[in-house]
Write a structure and sequence with these properties.
Blueprint (H helix, E strand, L loop, with lengths): L1 H6 L3 H32 L3 H10 L3 H37 L6 H21 L8 H31 L8 H25 L5 E2 L9 E9 L2 E8 H23 L1 H11 L1 H6 L4 H27 L1 E2 L5 H14 L4 H25 L9 H15 L14
Antiparallel strand pairs: 1-4, 2-3
Main location: membrane
Subcellular location: Cell membrane
Pfam families: BPD_transp_2 (PF02653)
Length: 391
């Protein structure tokens, strides 16, 4: 055991886990306090009277009963946003431009994983599969999505970005937008030629749709069940493992040291013997693999995907990266979790707090409002710009 610890930097494993716990607890406490405060202010108003008539419960009681479930759901989607945001952050840290094609790389990973599972289901391998085999098939789908997305990200870098590396920043940005639209149409073309369908549904197998119930609470004339689905646990655990692995790669390995060196000064890194092109390709590979895995996890969580599935998650992950501090790995984690919490709280309580005038469909307004506010008042993000960890 001592020999193993000699070669493993335990600090770089424990530290990101501690950060994730701190960010999760901190964002949950802050958002819960805001929701409870609003509920107390509205309890004696027309909103409270309306809720009392409909559910025989006060606004405060409704908020408190639903609060644990909202926190669980917010963490689930927050970790997915964080995993996607890290892809944006890594590329920006090295090349200082936004890879807007990352959302389509995310979509490709989702399609590869889902199509693999659909093929396995059509062959009868998923039906009646044991629990161990079901998880093995899911891991296989995630790995295939990671390989496809990582390989595509490297190809995009080589074909669309490397020839423009010496140009002004606007040129590769326009190229990234063009690649994004190109990949969307490629997905549509491939799906129309192979399946004739644009919308694909994640097969039902294993125990992923089962729900672990923690308890039931009376709310007026009805009951509220507090629980978490197995697939949400899978999403959270998988995202945490990826985030910890990425942190270890960047901060505790030779490749990570080279990535940070290239991010800090490409010319000096080249003079020190680092193959800059190879490191940049590796950065795209790692970011693409994260996006591909997040795509499969997103499909597992929300079941349905289409060629445009990467647009809104990618845009929100970009918002999360800007919120935390673009180019900062820790900031991407914080931004993803905070944005997931904010979106879930808004979607869960907005309809009640506004008496149905603004429902959950308006939750996206909060994400993009945060982006505008951050760019206006704190363009460096919540975590600032950490040059030492800029990868």
């Amino acid at each position: 055991m001592k020999g193993f610890l000699k070669y493993v930097n335990v600090t770089e494993i424990v530290r990101p886990i501690g950060q994730l716990l701190a960010f999760s607890c901190g964002s949950a406490v802050v958002m819960s306090a805001i929701a409870i405060g609003i509920a107390l202010m509205l309890d004696k108003t027309a909103v409270g009277v309306d809720l009392l008539d409909r559910y025989n419960v006060s606004v405060y009681t409704y908020t408190m009963i639903n609060l644990p479930q909202v926190v669980i759901d917010g963490l689930t989607i927050g970790f997915v946003y964080a995993a996607i945001a890290l892809g944006y952050t890594m590329v920006y840290g090295v090349l200082e431009f936004i890879n807007f094609a990352h959302s389509e790389i995310f979509a490709v990973g989702a399609f590869v994983g889902v199509e693999l599972l659909i093929a396995l289901d059509s062959s009868g391998m998923l039906a009646g599969a044991s629990l161990g085999m079901a998880y093995s098939y899911l891991i296989l789908a995630i790995l295939m999505g990671m390989l496809a997305a990582g390989g595509l990200a490297m190809t995009v870098e080589r074909v669309a970005y490397r020839p423009l590396r010496g140009a002004s920043r606007l040129v590769p940005l326009i190229s990234a937008i063009g690649v994004s639209f190109f990949l969307q149409d490629v997905i549509r073309l491939v799906e129309s030629l192979t399946t004739g369908q644009f919308n694909r549904i994640m097969p039902t197998f294993g125990n992923f749709d089962q729900r672990i119930v923690f308890g039931k609470f009376a709310m007026g004339t009805s009951n509220i069940t507090l629980g978490i689905s197995v697939k949400s646990i899978v999403v959270i655990v998988s995202a945490v493992l990826m985030l910890v692995a990425l942190n270890y790669l960047v901060n505790a390995t030779r490749i990570g040291k080279a990535i940070r060196a290239v991010a800090q000064d490409r010319n000096t890194a080249s003079l020190m013997g680092i193959n800059v092109n190879r490191i940049i390709s590796t950065t795209f590979l790692v970011g693409g693999m994260l996006g591909g895995a997040a795509g499969v996890l997103y499909a597992l969580k929300f079941t349905r995907i289409d060629p445009f599935v990467g647009f809104f998650p990618g845009l929100k992950a970009f918002t999360a990266a800007v919120l935390g501090g673009i180019g900062n790995l820790t900031g991407a984690l914080l931004g993803g979790i905070v944005l997931g919490m904010l979106e879930t709280f808004a979607g869960s309580y907005m309809g009640i707090f506004t008496m149905g005038a603004a429902g959950s469909e308006y939750k996206d307004i909060f994400a993009f409002s945060i982006l505008i506010l951050v760019l206006i008042f704190r363009p460096q993000g919540l975590m600032g710009k950490n040059v030492g960890q800029k990868a």
